[in-house]
Amino acid sequence: MTHHIQHRATHAKLARVLDLVTGQYMRFKLQCNCEPGDNPAQSEVAGHMGVGSNFLCHKCHAGGTKKEKQSNPGVLRTVQETLKEVEHQLQLASRGVALTVTTRQTETGVKDVYTQFWIEWLIQWSQEQQKCREGQSLEEIKAELMDLIESDHDSVYNPFLTLKYSNVNQDTPVEILHTILLGIVKYGWHTTHTTWKDNQKALYASRLQSTDPEGLSIPAICAGYIMQYANLLIGWQLKILAQTNVFYIYDLVSADQYQLIKATGVLAALLWVPEIFNMGEYLEDVKIAVANVLDSAAKLDPSKIIAKMKYHLLVHIPDDVERLGSIIGQATESHESFNLVFRHCSVLSNHQSPSRNIAYQLAKQDTFRHLISGGWYKERGESNPEQWKLSGHVLLQYVEKSEVLKQIYHIGPHLRGKENVGATVLKPISHKDKEPRSRICQAHQENGKVLFWCLPKAPRLPSYPAY
Ligand SMILES: [Zn+2]
Predict the structure, then answer these.
(1) CA of 169 to the centre of ligand 1 (A)
(2) Which superkingdom (predicted)?
(3) How far is the centre of ligand 1, averaged over its atoms, from the C-alpha of 159 (Å)?
């Protein structure tokens, strides 16, 4: 809630910061770009009933009875429509009949866990009031309760639904780890390996182990482990299979199974792109690749197409790419490694408000990282109300030499001199450099074509005080 209020406060009064490149002040307002997360989390923030409901998609109205279910996207949901539905459910709740609310939730697929507390409270309160105030009509009690709800609007409604310039139903992009790797890649892998006999498993493992990992951006392959724990694979292992299986299983599976693995491989190759050069062409390719995956999966087991939410979500990928860019940009895989940190923040707190405690703890850690990595901060003093400072050079030098700190806080990989092939590093400009700002253009060769890109010069190095 505090976050929501602070976010809105920057719209009313823009936050002011110092731009170290130009040395001038600039202003900004906070804006929620999108909400990456796994499918249950995205359903929750979008006020949706969940993937187990009849209307299984938080992005569209697809669903209903088994007859009506299909894998084409339904009419897209909007945040205004979801908010209106939640308001309607509150009004129903104020009449004191729980069944009407639950029926409405099942019919629409909208059930906001944030407002659900108030809905349950309203039902109970309305029932009690109807019993005690015999002379009063139901409409009067309802109006009174709704006034009470409206007077505390911010506490009752899910902040994601009232967020300005954001459509949370559409700004919850398809997530590549949970929907692709742990979704269709896993389903495809399951349909293949479960039918194998021991000799086929051994043959597959030897083929997989012989993979040349050069250029695949994957860690070392442990084929024996992958085969032994075939049903318990995690993201990076499935990423290996998505890239390599098509070459190894051609004579170990049926034609239909092989078709699914090929279609999944093509889609995965299309999705793991950091940059899209021709959006129209790319979207057409993705649409065809998605349709091929769905057709191949339907040929193997048609019931899965309507039962598995992750198959349905594939049809939303083109819209998400058009709205938010390449979907690997919203991947949550790298954040998964923070799960232990989240857990410790909660375990080592006073357990009064775990989410708040975690948020505060992470904010403190981020502030610490900002300071030790040479970030600037504003210090208010009586004589000089706005003085911008940074940590002392002794601390910065200490951090520079400490591999542990740099690793924990992921500070400047370029300082360690381990640059990935193709990666670029912005060289800091010395504070003595008085040249006007310029742009450095670099070129690189790719498949015989020369591509150009421009890099702005990095912020100037701070002038350390002389001791
Ligand atoms: Zn949908």
Answers:
(1) 10
(2) Eukaryota
(3) 22
